[in-house]
Amino acid sequence: MPLTAALALMLTPAPLSVPRSFDLRAGSVDRRIIRDGSDHGVEPGKTGQGFLYSVTLPEGDYRVTLRLGDARQAGDTSVKAEARRLMLNHVATRPGETIERRFLVTIRTPALPPPPANAPGGAAVRIDARDAQEFTWDNKLTLEFLGRPMVRSMRIEPVSAPTVFLAGDSTVTDQYAEPAASWGQMLPAMLDDGVIVANHAKSGATLKSFLTDLRFDKLLAAVKPGDWLFIQFGHNDQKQEWPQTYADAAFTYPAYLRAYIAEARRRGAQPVLVTSPERRNFDAQGRIRETLGAYADAVRKVAAQEKVALIDLHADSRAIYEALGPQVAPTAFNDGGRDKTHHNDYGAWLLASAVAERVRAQVPDLAAHVTTPAFVPARPPAASAVAIAPSLIRSDLRPAGN
């Protein structure tokens, strides 16, 4: 199981100075179940649909090179990293064929650079019980091989590359278990192997709680010149019944957005504002009812005033849901459609596709890294055309902040 914050602080692996290689063919010694004292292996619970493989590594950024294929069998390999970040989607191999694929991934622990004596701050991110269940806040890289995975070998080496940091709530975060999913964990599969996606979003988070939980400190500790910071909050900030974190759309919310923008710019990173996707509430005419309009308008206004790139996911989500219609739109949402806020794999893919398309138009220096075809929100593909391989871990619990 992933380590607690305290253990992560004490058990930090030595820096990786040379690449590490693993034989992942069925029956190889590297494919044994991981045990106490071993620093790599298959996580318990593998099924006929795939397996989880972990390697103990220090916090940092890595290039993973996979050789896929089998001498006798056809394969259909999908790969997810850490808490189900989609890295490779349905890589087909014929019998006897070998294909090499690469992607970049980041891993982290809760540890923070400790503040000087007598200075305010903390030594670790405040993670909760749900966080501790994830393969995110530990000292391992965990990869999930899904579908009909045919994996020959894996090579891991440290890398330095520009990073897309994501700060947001449950509609952005890496959801730990099926059937919930968010656009942030689909985005890596839509970008090439020249950039890293570091998803720091948290279910239930607000602009204020992201600060008080020291999640923004953790993110900023890794930001470097040439990176991007995508900022999407609103679903929880608007909740007046949460008095400690409520931010009104007219004054407090835009002020906090500007503070986030300033922190990114101070470190040489490019801030990008993202409007929150709307909730799936249809009126009698088949149009989506407005619940986040004031917050989306505030984001648009701040983006214009601060000359910041804008990803208008609020507008695109409405277009997607209305194009699907009241009968089909629930098939893009968590909990069999009973959840009107959070998505499943299909819905997360649609929203990530909208984000990627906006990146092409609004973020020129990142646009060259987008690999997916053009996406039109008013003409979303059917679920059968997306078909993300489901992860092995499932949960009936809805994301926090629901």
UniProtKB/TrEMBL annotation:
TM region(s), chain numbering: none
Pfam families: Lipase_GDSL_2
Assigned keywords, A-Z: Hydrolase
Keyword Manganese listed: no
Keyword Hydrolase: yes
Signal peptide interval: none
Family that this chain belongs to: Belongs to the 'GDSL' lipolytic enzyme family.
Name used for this protein in its record: Rhamnogalacturonan acetylesterase
